[in-house]
Amino acid sequence: MLVLLPPSETKSEGGDGAPLDLGALSFPELNPVRARVADAVVALAGDLAASLTALGLSDRQVDEVERNAELFGSPTRPALERYTGVLYDAMEVGRFTKAERRRADRRLAVASALFGVVRAGDRIPAYRLSGGTVLPGLGGLRGVWRADLEKTLSTVDDLVVDLRSGAYANLAAIPDAVTVRVVTEDTSGRRKTVSHFNKAYKGKLAAALATTPREPGSTRGLVSVAKAAGMRLEPTDRRAFDLVVEP
C-alpha cells in the first residue's frame, strides 16, 4: 500500500542529514525533472523581488527565499519530519514505535512540487514551492511534472490511497487510486464536505494506515483499519470513500 500525502507550506528547520542528494531519493526515474525544477528554484532565489512574486510571499518571508537559495547545501531530514502543519501534527509521528516508523517510511509518500513524490524516509531540505507556482523558464508545474509523474505513479503495484489536496492532485492523475473525502452527516443522512478539519482527519487516517501491523491490500482492508482506529470509512463508488466524522 502507498498512502500519498499532500505536502505543507510550512517546514521544520535544520536537520542532521547530509545535503540534498537526488540520487538517494525514491523513484529515481524522476531525477531529471527534479534537477530541472531544483535548478530553476535556486536560480529564481537569486532575484529576491521575482522570488517573492512567483512564490506568493510577503516582504516578511525573505527567509523562505534564502532557504531556496541554499537548497543544495542545507541539511536534510526525513520528509515525514520535514513537513509540518495540521495534517502532520495529527499523525503524531513522534509517538510511533520503531516498528511503526519502519512501516510508515515504507507505506507513506508525500506529493511535492519540487520532488514530484518522495517516500516518508527520504531526506530532503527545507524549501518553499507550491503546486500552483509558475517558475520562470519552466512555466506551470503541472506541465513540468504531469507526464513523468503520472508514468511513475501508474506503475506502483500496491494499493494507492490518494490524500493529496487539489493543487498537488492536479500535477498528476492516478486513475486507480482510492480517494477519500472528509464529511459530516446530519440526522437526515445528508453529507457535507469538511473544510476546516479536513487535514486533521486525513492525518489521523494516514497514521492508522501507516502503522497497522497488517498492511491492507484491498479497499475492504482500508475500511477495517479505519474501523479499528475508531473511524467510519464508507464507499461512495468503487474507488471513492467518505470519512464520516462528527459535526
Automatic annotation (TrEMBL):
**Which InterPro entries does UniProt cross-reference here?**
YaaA
According to its UniProt entry, one GO biological process term is:
response to hydroperoxide
One Pfam short name:
H2O2_YaaD
- Cellular component GO terms, alphabetically? cytosol
What sections of the sequence does the record tag as coiled-coil?
Answer: none
Question: Could you tell me what this protein is called?
Answer: Peroxide stress protein YaaA
Q: From which source organism is this entry?
A: Actinokineospora auranticolor
